[in-house]
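Lecture 7 notes: from sequence to structure.

We start with a single chain of 274 residues. Read the sequence below before looking at the structure.
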Amino acid sequence: MTDFESGAIFRANNWNGSGMFQPVDHQKTANAVVEQIEDLILKGVLQSGDRLPAERDLADQMNVSRPVLRDALKTLEDRELISSRRGGGTYVAELIGPIFSEAVVQLIARHPGAVNDYFEFRRGIESQAAALAAARAAPSDLARLQDIVRQMQEAHDSEDLPAESRLDVAFHHAVGEAAHNVVMLHTLRSCYRLLENGVFYNRGRLYHHPSARVELLQQHKAIADAIQTGDADRARQASENHIDYVRGTLAETKDLDRREQLAGLRRTRKPARA
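Now the structure, written as tokens:
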């Protein structure tokens, strides 16, 4: 199960949308319901896998009749934005399509040189997202970043590598959301799917570097601190430094693995007879 899938299940089981949906103008009825839910999806408030409140609760929150709500949900389902599961409720549909076709993904996997292009892309878009987040982040965005950094520290102290890996992705998602640019948001989410699936690199290998876990934690803290203080230039630079470090450390680790493999072959070689 990917980090994304785990997050979707967590939200589905622990979130009911309380306070998110607003009463609508009865002159607009079903169209107003559709527009409100579409807006929440577009802005990333509702995410793939999120379960909508039960029909009765959602109708009450939006102050519409249940027939009107059903009409609106039918429209959203026709537009493939939500999906209903018999006896299981209504969920936001899978919205993040692949950034590449499967054929291109496999092509990249066979040509490791493409990893540099991936990091180049991430360096540009993530540094821009960090700068925008420093300028635009709302108080709740800042609180979320603080909470993720706190969890990162706890995972680091307890040497919980799976949690560190999961929180790494959560942190970058949070920065993307704090930038408040919907096109950038959905592009980053698609990009991080490749990161979660290990298409470009395995984060476990990165953590094998002797100083990586400490360095990565400090880099994430530096990005978060720059965003918290509203320093766009520092946030951009901290993000660029982070990507440069990851790219360089992975290359170093890969080279070390090659040398270790060669050394192992030498140790197991039988000496030639005199």
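The first strand starts at residue 82 and ends at 85. Keep this in mind for problem set 3.
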